[in-house]
Amino acid sequence: MDFYLLLKKNSIDILSHYKPIKGFKNISWFPDFQHVHYPAFFSKKEILQRNKLYNNYIKNSEILIVSSKSSKKDLIKFKKEDKKIEILKFVPEINFSKIEDKKVFEKKLNIRKNYIFTPNQFWVHKNHICIIEALNILKNKGIIIKCILTGSQHDHRNHNHFEKLIKKIELYKLKNQIKYMGVLPYNKIINLLYHATIIINPSLFEGWSTVVEEAKILDKRILLSNIDVHIEQKPKKGLYFNPNDPKYLAQRIEKIFNSKEPQTKKLSTLIDDYSLNRKIFAKKYINIVQNLKV
Fold it and tell me: Which of 92, 115, 212, 255 has the most CB atoms within 10 Å of its CB?
């Protein structure tokens, strides 16, 4: 059956987070405007495709959704039409039942020391090089700190990016410190997040960082780049650094590893807080949809 007819048959009258279709009320979501701020990270073809896609969203949607105030400012500059913009700060899904006892988890993954964790994909703007440079600075001071990286190696905009990072790790003789674990299932990622000493997000650009939100939910210490979106997310245990200053990042890492970690909230409290935040997020989205139906 034709998709249009299938939707009509099931009395669907609003489409959300999908390409706009005539005959329906459409809600479109814009992840970010990275291609506007960092055009060097994209080919000319990709920039044209993104602009075409976004202009289609703007022209054919009743409501436009972004995840941050920063993205809203970008969208206002980008759009030429007067359309309603809603900020919907998403709350990522967390399955607390997957969190294991620290000793059990460490034994499974053969982890014996405190560690830094960064679960970002290996895309150029994710800025892993800042962490590598910071750890090299610490190593040269005789400070050896374990770092775990996960995520896809592939960056379609720069096919050699991951390889260049690995070569840099080898050049600095950091292979025994920096462990790349590939693309892992959720149950391992959530435990790596929960049991990490520090989570780091050195990204140069984000629409709304999932990693930062996960750190907030799990009440974790996080070092994050001082970009507008990260500042807007304002994690209680967050410390900011210039993403182009690995020396300062190294100082931050050293200071945290030499200090007593602040006590993490009880798991039951984390679950209660998370449940409330998810309900607030859901209510906000429901209101957006209901207002469109009126």
Answer: 212
**Residues 242-270: tens digit of each pLDDT:** 999 999 999 999 999 988 776 788 999 99
194-229 pLDDT, tens digit per residue, is: 999 999 999 999 999 999 999 999 999 999 999 999
96-270 under CATH 3.40.190.170, yes or no: no
- Residue 92 near residue 193 (C-beta atoms within 8 A): no
Classify residue 225 by its DSSP letter: E
Q: Provide the token pair at 170.
A: 């080898």
User: Amino acid identity, residue 172?
Assistant: Y
**How far, in Å, CA of 137 to CA of 100, rounded?**
33
| Full 3-state SS string of 155-191 | CCCCCCHHHHHHHHHHHCCCCCCEEECCCCCHHHHHH
DSSP lists the bridge partners of residue 29 as 65
List the domain boundaries for the chain: 7-88, 96-270
